[in-house]
Amino acid sequence: MLKDYLSPFAPQLQGHVELRAQVSTNHVVAMLNGDLQSNARAQQGGVSARVYRNGVYGFASAVEYDEESVRRVLKAAEENALFLDARVKKNRPALTVQPSGMIAKDREYIDVPQKDYIEFVREADDYLKQKYPHLLSRRVQLRHDCMEKLLMVSDGTNSHSVRPRTHLVVLFTTEASDGTPVEIFNVIGGGEGVLTDYFTDPSRYYEKMDEQVELLMKKRDGVFTNAGLKDVVLAPALAGILAHEAVGHTVEADLVLGGSVAAHNLGKRVATDLITMVDFAHTLPDGSRAPLPVYVDDEGTPASDEVLIKDGILVGYMNNRETAQHFGMEPHGNARGYAYSDEPLIRMRNTAILPGHDKLEDMIASIDDGYYFTQTNNGQADTTGEFMFGIMMGYEIKNGKLGRAVRDTTISGVAFQMLQTVDMLSDDMVWSCSGTCGKKQPMPVGMGGPAVKCKVNVAGK
Q1: What's the CATH number of domain 7-220, 3.90.1010.20, 3.40.50.300, 3.30.2290.10, 3.40.50.1220?
Q2: Residue 173 in contact with residue 179, Cβ under 8 Å?
Q3: CA distance 120 to 194
Q4: What are the residues whose beta carbons fall under 8 Å from the beta carbon of 130, sequence distance 6 or more?
Q5: What is the pLDDT, as a whole number, of residue 380?
Q6: I want to staple 450 with a disulfide (CB 3.0 to 4.6 A). Which of 67, 272, 326, 426 is the partner?
C-alpha cells in the first residue's frame, strides 16, 4: 500500500498542480508444452508532479518516493513550467476548476506469491497434456497487472485507487491436412481482481479449454474465405475491439486536433440510427460495475460517462481539461498516465456500442451468403478510421445457416462508412477487460458490444 507523502504539500499547491505517486506490479507465468517458458514478476514505482502555467505544462518525476522526493519533483516541475512559459508564450487562460473531494480506495491489494501462479498453470497444462496429446503445441499463460495510484491536485478531486486484473490465456496449435499449422488462442477467464479472485481451481476452466480445442479442430478442417465486400455478423468480442480501435481513437480530442476524421464530423451522421456508442466511466446502465472502473482521472477530474455517438450522430469527444476548454466541452475524466513517469494522455476507459433488439439467430438467418466472425487475433486502425483486423475464428453463412469454419483471414474498411451499413444489433452485451491500448503508453482498457450485422471487406486466399 502506498504511504501518503503527498498531503503535507497540499498548502503549497498554487494554480493547477498534480502530484501522483504510483506503484505498478506485473506477474507473468507461461508454460509451453510442459516447459516453463515465462516466470516473471516486476514492480516499479515513484512519484511525479505536473504544473500548468498559461497553456504549458512542466513535468518531473523520480523513482524514489518520500517527502524529499516529492519536494524535489514539485520544485523541478514548477521550474520547467516557468521555463516553457517564458519561451513558448501561449498565454492561455487558467484551466476550469473541477469539483473538489476525495475518492478513497475501494479495495486492498493482495500480491499473490509467484508459486501460486506456477502451480495453477502447471496443473492446467497437465490436464491438456493428458487429454490432448495430439496437439502440435499448447501454451497456458496467467498474466496479472495492477496500478495503485495516490493523487493530489490543487483544484479537483484527490483519489487513492487500486486496479488489479488477472487473466488466463491459452494458445493451441495443430496441423491441417496440407501440413500448414493452424492455431487458436483466447482469454478464457479472469477480469478485474487478483489471482485468488478467479484462479484457485484449474478444473473450473477445463470445459473452456475443451471448447477451444474443439474450435481448433473445426478450424483445421475449415475453408478459406472468398474475397469481396460481404454481409457479415461480427460477434460481440469483435464489436468491442471495433468500437475501441476504429472509432474510439478518432474521437480522442488530442487526435481530433491532429486531424482525425472526427474533426469535421461533429454533429453529423456517421452511422445508422441503430448505433449509440459510449465511453463508460465506472457504472454500466444496469447498475453493475464497469470492467475497469475509473472514478477520478489523473488530472483530478471526476469521471463520468461520455456519449460519443447518439443514434448515429457524432455528438462528443473524449477530452482532458485542456482540450475540453478548447472545444467548449466538459471533461469527463479521460486523462490517464500508465507509469509514474508518464504524463496523462486522453485514454478510453470502457468503450462500447450499446445493444439493439435483434436475436443472433435472426441476424444469421438474414444473410444468404456471408460470414459469422467470432474471434480476432490482432487489429489496428488509423485516425482516418480505416481499420484492418485479423480474424482467427469464424464460419460461413449459407442461405441463413452456419456452414463450415473458416481459416485465418482479415477484414477491413473505413469505420464511419462501415457503421452506415449496420442494420441489426443483437440484444445482448459482452464485456472484456483483457485488452491493453498502445497509444504511446500501454493502458488497460475495457470494451464491449453486441453482435453487429454489417458489410466489410473480407480477404481471400
Answers
A1: 3.30.2290.10
A2: no
A3: 14
A4: none
A5: 87
A6: 426
Whole-prediction pTM: 0.96
Q: Is the C-alpha dihedral spanning 327, 438, 291, 24 positive or negative? A: negative
Q: How far apart are the first and last CA of the chain?
A: 53
For the chain, what are the domain ranges? 7-220, 228-458
Instruction: Give me 380's grid cell.
Output: 489496428
pLDDT value of residue 132: 98
What are the backbone angles phi and psi of residue 357, rounded to the nearest 5°?
A: -130, 10
One-letter amino acid for residue 229 of the chain:
L
CA distance 432 to 284: 13
Q: For residue 261, give the nearest of 375, 364, 383 by alpha carbon.
A: 383
CA neighbours closer than 13 Å in the CB half-sphere of residue 384: 6
CA distance 312 to 179: 46
Residue 1: what pLDDT? Answer: 80
Instruction: Specify the length of the chain in residues.
Output: 461
- pLDDT confidence of residue 172: 99
Could you tell me if 33 and 138 are in contact, meaning their C-beta atoms sit under 8 angstroms apart? yes
User: Taking a C-beta distance cutoff of 8 angstroms, is the pair 372, 382 a contact?
Assistant: no
- Chunked into runs of 10 residues, the chain (461 residues) has average pLDDT values of 94 95 98 98 98 98 98 98 97 93 91 98 98 98 98 96 98 95 97 98 98 98 97 96 93 97 97 98 97 98 98 98 97 98 98 98 98 93 94 98 98 97 97 94 97 98 84
157 φ, ψ (degrees, to nearest 5):
-105, 125
